[in-house]
Amino acid sequence: MKILIEREPLMASIQNVMKAISSKPTIPILSGIKLEANQQEVTLTGSNSDITIESIIPSEEDGVVNIHEIVPGSVVIQAKFLPEIIRKLPENQVELSVDDDMNVLIKSGHAEFKLNGQDTEEYPQLPVLQTDNSFHLQIDLLKMLIRQTNFAVSVSETRPILTGVHLKLENEQLELVATDSHRLASRKINMTDTDGLTFNNVVIPGKSLSELNKILDDTQEPIQISVTDNQILFRTKHLYFLSRLLDGNYPETSRLIPNQSKTVVNVNSKDLIESIDRASLLAKDNRNNIVKLVTQGQNILQITSHSPEIGYVEETLETNAIEGEELKISFNAKYMIDALKAIGTDQVSINFTGAMRPFIMQPDEDDEPILQLITPVRTY
Amino acid sequence: MTSWTELKQSQPVAVKMLNNSITRQRIAHAYLFHGPPGTGKQEASLLFAKRYFCEELHDTSAESCNACPTCKRIESGNHPDLHWIEPEGQSIKKEQIEYLQKEFTYTGLESNKKVYVVREAEKMTINAANRLLKFLEEPSRETVAILITEHISQMLDTIVSRCQRIQFHTLSNQKLYEQLLNQGLPESTANMFASMKLDVQQSLELNEDDWFAEARKIVIQLMDKVMNPSEDGYLYLHQMYLKHFQGREQLDFGLDLLLIWFQDLVSLHLDKNESIVLTDQMDRLEQFHYVVSLSEAKTLIYEILNTKRKLAQNVHPTLAMEYLILQLQR
């Protein structure tokens, strides 16, 4: 294999795949970057076995020539030194060649590096994903979906399946659900071009999704999503992101969501976030970060927090409307703030069904089917 | 060892059980391979994993092809769905089992099949063992656990009862001895390795090692010192012995060598000349057996075993060795 390549795109690609490479790999070969060249492009792969990132450098794009010369072939190179080597090379063009004994020669200007490579046969074989099992989203929409649900995944390993976000596509509707059994975030969007594709019980690890969120730029370009038995692939033009899925059955969550309510509060979400944030100042040291919310007459909410060693805080907040029964309820302030931020609209309506039942929050105008559920905390 | 057929020569029962479970597609979710060192437990687990993942299967045979990329990667330790757990230092820690636990909540990387092999499984801490128990109890589909141990009695009963036990029998010394001779080892060395139950691979490596040749010499000199009342074994211990045998494993090895000496003394007392290992050191043995009586030799063997136990229990190595030498000194 031999390539003559521009340094800039190579560097960018290396930096992309480095994000997947762990400093403590589970198997030795994963400490390397896989380099694969065919006539049209060069593909770099990095993996930590949970996520795999592939970055593609086309030989020519929009009239800009990236790769001047390609002799097809493949090699695995130690990832520890490659980024520094490429960054510090003197010239803008890099010549990279591999002989039959997997010795890698990197040449640029008068500098020459000889590295020991490994056979790509040793590298994990990634599943070839069929494109007919896939659908498209816009990148910025996908990023928003991740932001709105991923915060609610469980961090404890007691129920591993809850550390992921559940993905379901049915009747042209895509649904994402995340829950840690104290709160739940759910988001639905309508899809148009799914070609009758349906799947259920696809659970993507929360860590993979936050990694994906970091890697993707906020653009309007489409991203293709394909699902197989054990992997999910997110594919943009030059970047493939593969993640393993979580094994097991995701619990049925639709039953948890109450469909009637006894008290409905409609409130400006920014004001509510701020006042809960203030109230939680005193509660933060407390184990559960609990604030208490009480409805009063004339559309007034009272928000209080009390911690015996520190002190007491009380604040009243004017709402747009309070309908239904009077209510006293306590909940975790962090959950509430997270949920309100995820909804992100000006006005939000909160539906309570009694002090001991979970309550749900939804944006006031119902064009975005997003739903946040929080279970209250029992206080006396 | 590259095939079941080869392994079958030394382990007919174990291999037959495993082969039958493979060919009849009745693979258990957990196996416990137990037996003394050097009996091919590791090879068996490797062969098993190869057959389990191999891409070019023949349903009727338990052999793997050994040529496909999967088999090659298992051989080189690069298969992503085969997980090896080994003691880190003295024990297998909770975190290592937690890693496994996390790994098994994920789907496989290449397929949904997964195998994990726990080497020296008796070294799991109580915490680790209890965690492992949790997923031995609730095996996920297509996951096989192989636990390897030399001391089955040190394993938790709850773990043992959840695994299919496969016993690997001791190779007879004679057989091992012949194997080693075939590999071109000198008679005296082959005899010593056979009695220490090292497998062929380990023996060949040690035979090439200068450290071992030196170790053997130092142990002989130590014997000379402690068996001679006018010499001081205690000084020799500090001047030579402890400098050469450093770290727990090497000290343990030294004790094994010492043990052979005293076993031979017992054999000599009982006129069982055929079971003497150090046939090249007959002069010394003859001489020593006048110094040490039969019952003394037995007591000293007990002391050496006791020292081995102390080392395993984290007693300060220098102190343990000093104590032993004071006991040995005539």
TrEMBL record, chain A:
One of its GO terms (biological process) is DNA strand elongation involved in DNA replication. GO terms for cellular component: cytoplasm; DNA polymerase III complex. Residues 137-252 form the DNA polymerase III beta sliding clamp central domain. It is found in: Cytoplasm. Pfam families: DNA_pol3_beta, DNA_pol3_beta_2, DNA_pol3_beta_3. InterPro entries: DNA_clamp_sf (IPR046938), DNA_polIII_beta (IPR001001), DNA_polIII_beta_C (IPR022635), DNA_polIII_beta_cen (IPR022637), DNA_polIII_beta_N (IPR022634). SUPFAM superfamilies: DNA clamp (SSF55979). Its main location: cytoplasm. Keywords: Cytoplasm, DNA replication, DNA-binding, DNA-directed DNA polymerase, Nucleotidyltransferase, Transferase. SMART domains: POL3Bc. Confers DNA tethering and processivity to DNA polymerases and other proteins. Acts as a clamp, forming a ring around DNA (a reaction catalyzed by the clamp-loading complex) which diffuses in an ATP-independent manner freely and bidirectionally along dsDNA. Initially characterized for its ability to contact the catalytic subunit of DNA polymerase III (Pol III), a complex, multichain enzyme responsible for most of the replicative synthesis in bacteria; Pol III exhibits 3'-5' exonuclease proofreading activity. This is Beta sliding clamp. It comes from Aquisalibacillus elongatus.
TrEMBL record, chain B:
GO terms for molecular function: 3'-5' exonuclease activity; DNA-directed DNA polymerase activity. One of its GO terms (biological process) is DNA-templated DNA replication. Transmembrane segments: none annotated. It catalyses: DNA(n) + a 2'-deoxyribonucleoside 5'-triphosphate = DNA(n+1) + diphosphate. Pfam families: DNA_pol3_delta2, DNApol3-delta_C. It comes from the Bacteria. InterPro entries: DNA_pol_HolB, DNA_pol_III_delta_C, DNA_Rep/Repair_Clamp_Loader, P-loop_NTPase. Its EC number is 2.7.7.7. Residues 255-329 form the DNA polymerase III delta subunit C-terminal domain. Keywords: DNA replication, DNA-directed DNA polymerase, Nucleotidyltransferase, Transferase. It is an enzyme of class 2 (transferase). NCBIfam families: holB (TIGR00678), PRK08058.1 (NF005972). This is DNA polymerase III subunit delta'. The lineage of its organism: Bacteria, Bacillati, Bacillota, Bacilli, Bacillales.
